[in-house]
Design goal:
By secondary structure, the protein is an alpha/beta fold. It is built from 4 helices and 28 strands. The protein has 2 domains: 137 residues, 3 Solenoid (UDP N-Acetylglucosamine Acyltransferase, domain 1); 54 residues, Up-down Bundle (Udp N-acetylglucosamine O-acyltransferase, Domain 2), CATH 1.20.1180.10. 17% of the residues lie in helices and 27% in strands.
Length: 259
């Protein structure tokens, strides 16, 4: 059992709490909750139908695992699954999945969700993602590893944000953001370069960065059709993991690509 449950907290008998879990004042831990070792609910946190990993901290007035805002949802057995070492700040809302997906809203490991972020049903926020204040993700959004999302950004349902991408604050995002790029725009989001600072900080070599610069130029600045740009990249550049990731992301897009 948890070593620290405040007397004002309400914990359902079915909840599973690992050792060293802390449940603060006025928290509500409902049915289907599972909280991993060393995780902390500070105060006034609402949690149900959610698995929280180890070492997570959830700040006051956050709500995780409540019913989705989807008129098709009729209390099907869905959930939220959160990994390890996540920080969820004040007033964040993370809704459990709705119908039409795999039944789970996913938060990976080592993510930082700042105050007032909303993660809608069936989203997949992967690892080492930073989401600034008041960002809203609609349903089924995918955010890949090490992405950064600036404050007050709105992300359309089913959009994808690629690994190591950076989205500027107050962006209206309705199309996919390619990996390693930067995007901004209050009317229509547009690319404004490669996220060189971000990928340097993550240890990318100069050689890899130069290859990505060439690929970016061919894809988005040479006015080539995407299929022609991809063919030219495959002919002129080594097919590294980073180049493959960029090309496959573009080939798999369904909502269109920010350009």
């Amino acid at each position: 059992m948890a070593t620290d449950i405040h007397p004002t907290a309400i914990v359902d008998d079915s909840a599973e709490l690992d050792e060293d879990v802390s449940i603060g004042p006025f928290c509500l831990v409902g049915k289907g909750a599972k909280i991993g070792k060393g995780s902390k609910l500070m105060s006034h946190v609402s949690l149900e139908r959610t698995e929280v990993g180890e070492g997570c901290t959830i700040f006051p007035f956050a709500s995780v695992g409540l019913a989705p805002q989807d008129v098709k949802y009729t209390d099907e057995d869905t959930s939220v699954r959160m990994g390890n070492n996540n920080v969820v700040r004040e007033y964040v809302s993370i809704h459990r999945a709705s119908v039409g997906g795999d039944g789970v809203t996913k938060i990976g490991d080592n993510n930082f969700l700042m105050a007032y972020v909303h993660v809608a049903h069936d989203c997949d926020i992967r690892n080492h993602v930073i989401v600034a204040n008041s960002v809203a993700f609609a349903g089924h959004v995918i955010v890949e590893d090490y992405a950064f999302i600036g404050g007050f950004t709105g992300v359309h349902q089913h959009a994808r944000i690629g690994a190591y991408a950076m989205v500027a604050a107050i962006t209206r995002l309705s199309q996919d953001v390619p990996p390693y790029t930067m995007v901004k725009g209050t009317e229509k989001a547009k690319l404004f370069g490669l996220n060189v600072v971000g990928i340097k900080r993550r240890g990318f070599s100069d050689e890899t960065i130069n290859e990505l610069k060439t690929a970016y130029r061919l894809l988005f600045r040479e006015k080539l059709a995407l299929k022609d740009a991809i063919k030219k990249i495959q002919e002129e550049l080594p097919y590294t993991d980073e180049i493959r990731n960029l090309i496959e992301f573009i080939q798999q897009n369904k909502r269109g690509i920010c350009r």
